[in-house]
Amino acid sequence: MAETHSSRFILISACFLLLLSLLFNSASAQLRTNFYSNICPNVESIVRSAVTQKFQQTFVTVPATLRLFFHDCFVRGCDASVLLASQNGKAEKDHPDNLSLAGDGFDTVIKAKAAVDRNPNCRNRVSCADILALATRDVIVLSGGPSYPVELGRRDGKISTIASVQHRLPHPEFNLDQLNSMFASHGLTQTDMIALSGAHTLGFSHCGRFSKRIYNFSPRSRIDPTLNPSYALQLRNMCPLRVDPRIAINMDPNTPRTFDNTYFRNLQQGMGLFTSDQILFTDGRSKPTVNLFASNPSSFNQAFISAITKLGRVGVLTGNKGEIRLDCSRVN
Known about the structure:
One of its GO terms (biological process) is response to oxidative stress. One of its GO terms (cellular component) is extracellular region. The protein is mainly alpha-helical and 332 residues long. 48% of the residues lie in helices and 2% in strands. It has a two-stranded antiparallel sheet with strand order 1-2. Helix 3 crosses helix 5. About 2% of the residues have low confidence.
């Protein structure tokens, strides 16, 4: 009898996973690179121009926009829900995990949306979610990274709650199993996860996010032994124990303004800022991929393009679902 129940459970679980897969594939299948060809044929050049102008004002545009896209897709899917504001501070963007999102990412989307809507043919016909996806590709290219075709056709979500963020974003202290589990829940493989982690070649974090690694790692070792000792001392100098934990530190100490594979070479030297970075090299299951990306920029770029394209399909709203927001910060 127990064996029968077990078999039924396995069958039901398999059917459930198949249903989820069909639903996921059905929505993402409606995305296509030429979605706006008859609606707003110049949308890509309009967005690119606006993003380039913002980039020329501040480099923070790059990591801020890229991180905004990742946070949006991982919480409710790529529906621009992270852009929604609330008067009572209960939206996604108000969650502690999102408070560090730089304002320049939001501003990039707002300015690109305004530029699109200045074109009479395009006004209120391009979603904020698609504009964010295009802007993300553009900032990657502007910082020296690879270009790639962006699938379009997303609609904007109408829901944004602070509760929806809980346990949806990777934590700086995650181990490989935790990282793989979280990314797998979005249809992403370990290779996808490692490639997307390579985005840490850009941008910055704050001392409070990794201070435990350099001051109070364990009863046996105050400094995380997987950290390069010289790098740990540099971090201590930049992040004194009793100063503002919001001090910004470059994720990549060597080429922080260039999208390249230096992040992976840093991991080989024990210079991953987060535990979740360094574990990619110290865990034997992911180490070969890190070594490949460190030695072969082309392999990293190809894997990154594949991974961010798959990321852009997560939880998308298409067809009659969602809406085209008139203002990216509020529902219509």
